[in-house]
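USER: Fancy drafting a protein?

ASSISTANT:
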Amino acid sequence: MPTEKIIPIFPLDLVLFPRQELPLRVFEPRYKQLVDDCMLGDGQFGACLVREGGSVLGWSMPHSVGTIAKIIKCKDVGLDGLQLQIETVGRNPFRINEIIEPSMPQPRDYDPLSAEGHEIISEMNDKTGSGGKMYIRAKVTMLPEIDGSIPLASWENLVFLWKKNIKHQATSDDVTPGALDEVLRRFYLATDTPTAEYVYSLCALASTGPADLQDLLEAESAGDLLGRAERLMRRGMPA
C-alpha cells in the first residue's frame, strides 16, 4: 500500500513536470519559512497549480495532483535578506489526500509585494507562536512517474498533429514545414528516442494555459498521457 507523508505545498501559477527544472524567487515570509524548513529537512516541497475558485483560509487552493520539487540551490538575493533565489528540479508526482491548514488566514487587502504586507504576516505569525506553519501542508501519496520510452510512431503522430494545429491557427504564410522543424530543433524536440519529457515539452508549445498541462500531469500511464496529448493537439481543429 502506498505510503502517506506530509509535505509543504507551494501553490503556483504553473505546472512542474517530473525532471523539469524550475527557478523560483521567494519573497513572501510564509514561503521563506517553507524554504527554510525544506533546507533543514530533505529539501523537498510540493509544487501545485493553483485551483481557480478555491481557497484555504483565504490563501490559494492547490490542485490535488502536483509534483515534488527538490531544491538543488538556494541563495539570498541582494543584501537585505528579504528574497531568496532557489533552483529546483521536479521529482515524482503526488496526490493530495488531505490539506493541513496554515497557522493564519490571509489578511484583508493583503499585498504580498509590499513591505507592509510582510510586516502584517510576520506580526500575525509571532502571535501564533514559533511552532506555527504559515504555509499550507498536505498529506499526500506518491504516484509513479511515467518512465521509459514513448513509441516513435506515437511521437511522430503528435508532432504531425502539432504542426497541423499550428498551421490551422496561423494567420501568416510564414508558417512553413521548415520553420516548424526549426522550432522543434530550437526546443530540443527533434528526436528518434522520445520519452514522456518530450511529450510534456511539445504539449507546452501547444497549450493555451497551465490547465492544459495540469491535465497531462494527471495522466496515469504512458498510454493515458499520449491520449491526453492527442486531444490537446486536436483541440480547435476540424474533425
In short: The two ends are 43 Å apart (CA to CA). The first strand starts at residue 4 and ends at 12. Residues 154 and 226 are 7 Å apart (CA to CA).
